[in-house]
Amino acid sequence: MGNKQTVFTREQLEAYQDCTFFTRKEIMRLFYRYQDLAPQLVPLDYTSYPDVKVPYELIGSMPELKDNPFRQRIAQVFSEDGDGHMTLDNFLDMFSVMSEMAPRDLKAYYAFKIYDFNNDDSICAWDLEQTVTRLTRGELSAEEVSLVCEKVLDEADGDHDGRLSLEDFQNMILRAPDFLSTFHIRI
Fold first, then answer.
1. Which residues make beta-bridge pairs with 86?
2. For the EF-hand domain, which residue ranges apply (predicted)?
């Protein structure tokens, strides 16, 4: 008795439950996934709020991300410094937003940030080119990519300024019935 190791305080676990879409059990499972990425770096006791970041190279190699053409952008968007290195909070946020329980508008907001490669709060033709090239894994010619991007802008650019605002993007997502099923990671 008394040998049970405490990973989090009760308050920490409750806070994680309050700011994610996860149960305590799921939070613990994700903690151990995080800890398994860098056991020499991530302590088993988080009650003292250690300042730990798992490097992008390890985050990007996770089975859930390694084949995703947007893995680097996903890690950059969810990391607090934009470098892809993640704290436990960043890691939990990423999995929470990508979970089946996250609402469509939250997923759309983060998808927008992921596709906004130049971080200017809009999706321009260049951002679309990056997105289409990754989605098609480079199998389209530059001319075909340009044509697809032009069609997307024609269809979704509500104010015709040559770029997609968050509102334009959200309206486009509303017309994509498979968005919720494709923008998620199973834990």
1. 54
2. 144-179
